[in-house]
Amino acid sequence: MTAPDYLLEAIDIVKVFGTLRANDGVTLQVAPGQIHALLGENGAGKSTLVKMLYGSLQPTSGTIKWMGQEVVIPNPNAARKLGIGMVFQHFSLFESLTVVENISLAMPGKFDLDALSKKVEFYSGEYGLPLNPKATVADLSVGERQRIEILRCLMQEPKLLILDEPTAVLTPQEADLLFLTLRLLASEGCSVLYISHRLEEVKRLCHWATILRHGKVVASCDPREETAASLARLMVGGDIHTVRAAKAPRDGAVRFSLKNASLEADGPFAVELKNINLEVRGGEVIAIAGVAGNGQSELFDAISGERPLSNGSAVSIDGASCGAIGVTARRRMGAAFVPEERLGHGAVPVFPLSENVVLTRHSDDASLAENGLLNRGKANSIADRVIKTYDVRMGKPDPEARSLSGGNLQKFVVGRELDRQPKVLVVNQPTWGVDAGAAATIRQALIDLARSGSAVVVISQDLDEIFELADRIAVISRGQLSEAHPAHEMTAEKIGLMMAGSHEKESPHAAHS
Amino acid sequence: MVDQSLAVMLTIITAATPLLIAAMGELVVERSGVLNLGVEGMMVMGAVAGFAVAFLTGSTLLGVGAAIFAGVAMSALFGFLTLTLVANQVAAGLALTLLGLGLSGLIGEAFVGQPGVKMPTLFGIDALVPFSFILTAGVAYALFKTKIGLVIRAVGNSHNSAHALGYRVIALRYLSVMFGGACAGLAGGYLSLAYTPQWIENMTAGRGWIALALVVFASWRPLRALIGAYLFGAVSIMGFVVQSMGLGIPPQFLSALPYIVTIIALVIISGNKRLTQANTPACLAQSFVPDR
Fold first, then answer.
1. Which domains does chain A have, with CATH numbers?
2. Residue A235 three-state SS
3. What is the DSSP letter of A253?
4. Does B150 reach chain A within 8 Å, measured CB to CB?
5. Which phi and psi angles does A498 have, rounded to 5°?
6. How many Cβ atoms from other residues are within 10 Å of residue A496's Cβ?
7. pLDDT tens, residue by residue, A158-209
């Protein structure tokens, strides 16, 4: 036999971090031209495995074979030389540089931006990834930024392309475009290793799937012959609780509203909020869908009071105007907020969890700070309650916030606010980076809070989550918020069109002239 | 009349040249993401070293070399503190200025009041004036048309991304910082070898700070820094001319005028907020520690 059966074989890979066996005898085989899915929960070892394939980590033991030959991949440069390209979940782009400048920084050889621009145009035509090489990255949408990363890989003509959760930031339409590109690549013989949580998508796109759980391969199968539920069972190792919700009461009083709320952009790359209107009744969950960077963080700032508005009556909680006052004052009125960025925004990284509890709760819970003195016992007992209820896993008692893994910290910052039973809760990306089991717990808690009479607003990019949670759905694009429609009237396609701006009242003029 | 205006023009040029040279150096440093507030200290060390060597050897060329060397040595110290030991850049820069002012006074004590060696001139213009223009054009070309310039801007924009792509952030910043030191030293040498060929303690008189301000108000664009330097030079010399005419304008106002005019002009030039933000090095004054 001349040609090896597999382009890439990782055999019996072990990677040990301290006492944790992140990969424990993992074997992965990728055939040429195959779109191969790598599935698993957070912490199952997917990222660790691909980092070893891309040379950013070294395996503790095990062998990697590339086209039948045993290889060692000491660094990403070596991986690129072999023909392995990788698109990261968090992009490694330079915002103030142009597309072609970004690409040239990753390209070896002669420095000639004009020639490279032509090459970029050629490749972007070839693979259906439209991009203007002269555009500045800061002006581009997340989808376009991802195209830069993919093009940057493709221009080095890789034999294997690794994608880490590529669709997490895309609209359904953008994701469809990406799938076309990937199928085209596969038909040309390039293999794709595809990491995703979205099982439906994997069923549609991938030829084969390897499923990891706790660092071990638990199954290897053809996803087209499985159901989403059976794949999920393999990932989690049991059934996932489906989130159950009683019907939302129709007659709840309006607990939270925005009336013609506008907020100027506070920087050239920020978004201006234009006449936002929203009414949330007690008992319901409203989800705000949208592609990242369309005004979600500005909307959150306006709602939470991080940036108070000039017009006080634009925001009201239980009928009382609060648009012009800050976060603490709004908390006193019974609202709670969970920002998107959990470390540094939602929690102080170097403070222990108990002190982080005090930071959001001292204003409405006088017992936490009596006469200006901290009540550590009380803070600890609240922290412990949150940790137990939401299954926050940690290495030692009351650790610093930064020592928690992303998913566990997310459970903590959401749980901390849920624990107060707020009358109004606004959460930006509640389950970002949280695994399926914990995500279900958080979602159930959000719904339970709403049904107990509170108003809940969830800003999310995850459509599955939105459909699971929401009673009504609104879409934000370019700083404009659509009307909120009942969830059962909405489909992913409809939301996708609205994400692209079909509901906008103003025609999108050149955003920053 | 023609002679007089020519003389005024020449003084404007000599007033603007050291600002321009120092600003070009700092512009590259800040583009790479490092804020060196020690320009004043590096300049004054360049001034004393240049004067001393020229005085002892009689050669202005050796003097210029010594000025550059002194600036580079000071900036290497700054680089060691901030890049290798990861000290706070603002604090280290301020310390560098204080160190330079004190040390130069100590070294220069023996040279106070000594006759200096003046750089040879052609039609009243010395070699460093055309050099400052070449430097500006060179910096602009290098930053925006070459690979090394692109890498400098990339490192200043996101040191984490640059590191992930395999660029050597710290090494590149060392080079940029030392280039800035060379320029500041040279600008200082210009003061003690061409502008007023003698050594006076604290003879930089705040020019390092003006160069720093020029870089920021020019929103990190070389050509704008050139405009700013010349505007500053012109208005400050015009102040002397107006004063000698005896129009009764308070001299304090005239000496404040160059600062006011330069700042207003540069604020207007960089009025486009979007462009300014796009040019601002996002990692300015942030320390970089690679994760592995």
1. 8-236 (3.40.50.300), 240-334+422-513 (3.40.50.300), 352-420 (no CATH)
2. helix
3. P
4. yes
5. -70, -35
6. 21
7. 999 999 888 766 777 778 888 998 999 999 999 999 988 778 888 999 999 9
Strand order in the sheet with A84-87: A84-87, A160-164, A191-195, A35-39, A208-213, A216-221
A28-77 per-position pLDDT tens digit: 999 999 999 998 876 688 888 998 998 888 899 999 999 999 999 988 88
Residue A96 to residue B279, Cβ atoms within 8 A:
yes
Q: Which two tokens stand for residue B71?
A: 């600036």
Contacts of B158 in chain A (CB under 8 A): 92-95
Closest to B75 in 3D by CA, of B153, B152, B183, B155:
B183
Calculate how close chain A gets to B145, using CA atoms only, in Å.
9
Quick check: ipTM above 0.85? no
Angle made by CA atoms B84, B87, B92, in degrees to the nearest 5: 110
Sheet holding A320-321, edge to edge: A273-281, A254-263, A315-317, A320-321
Residues of chain A with C-beta less than 8 angstroms from the C-beta of B277: 96, 267-269
Name the one residue in this structure whose structure tokens are 């004067």.
B51
Which of A48, A28, A66 shows the shortest CA–CA distance to A159? A66
* Token reading at A125: 């035509």
3-state secondary structure of B281: coil
B152 chain-A contacts, CB cut-off 8 A = none
Q: Do A512 and B153 touch (CB under 8 A)?
A: no
Spatial contact of A59 and A52, defined as CB atoms under 8 Å apart: yes
Q: Where are the beta strands (DSSP E) in chain B?
A: 121-122, 125-126
Which DSSP symbol is given to B192? I
Q: Which of A478, A476, A480 is nearest to A512 (CA)?
A: A478
Counts for chain B of helices (H) and strands (E), in that order: 12, 2
Work out the number of other CB atoms within 10 angstroms of the CB of residue B256: 12
A121/B224 Cα distance (integer angstroms): 33
Distance from CA of B162 to the nearest CA of A (A): 8
Find all residues with CB under 8 Å of A259, minimum gap 6, and list them.
A277, A313, A314, A315, A316
The answer, for B278 touching chain A at a CB cutoff of 8 Å, is yes
Segment A462-479 shows an average pLDDT of 88
Give CA–CA dist A37/A305, Å, rounded: 42
CB A213 within 8 A of CB A233: no
Q: Which domains does chain B have, with CATH numbers?
A: 2-115+129-279 (1.10.3470)
Task: Yes or no: say if A357 and A341 are a contact pair by the CB < 8 Å rule.
Answer: no
Out of A84-93, A383-392, A405-414, A487-496, which region has the weakest mean confidence (pLDDT)? A84-93
| B144 close contact with A: CB closer than 8 A | no
- Asked if A94 lies within 8 A of B151 by C-beta distance, the reply is no
Contacts with A75 from chain B: Cβ below 8 Å: 166
For residue A108, the distance in angstroms to the closest alpha carbon of chain B comes to 11
Q: How far is CA B188 from the centre of its chain?
A: 8
**Alpha-carbon distances of B180 from A288, B34, B138, B226, rounded to whole Å:** 49, 10, 14, 16
CB count in 10 Å sphere of residue A160 = 24
DSSP assignment of B78-109: HHIIIIIS---HHHHHHHHHHHHHHHHHHHHG
Ramachandran class of A270: left when φ > 0, alpha when ψ lies in -120 to 50, beta otherwise: beta
Q: Which helix (H) or strand (E) holds A388?
A: helix A376-389
- Residue B91 in tokens: 């604090």
Q: How many CB atoms lie within 10 A of CB A147?
A: 25
- Backbone angles phi and psi of B80, in degrees to 5: -60, -45
| DSSP classification of residue B195 | I
**pLDDT tens-place string over residues B135-148:** 999 999 999 999 99
Output the CA–CA distances (angstroms, integers) from residue B200 to B56, B111, B209, in the order listed: 17, 8, 18
User: Could you tell me how many residues make up chain A?
Assistant: 513
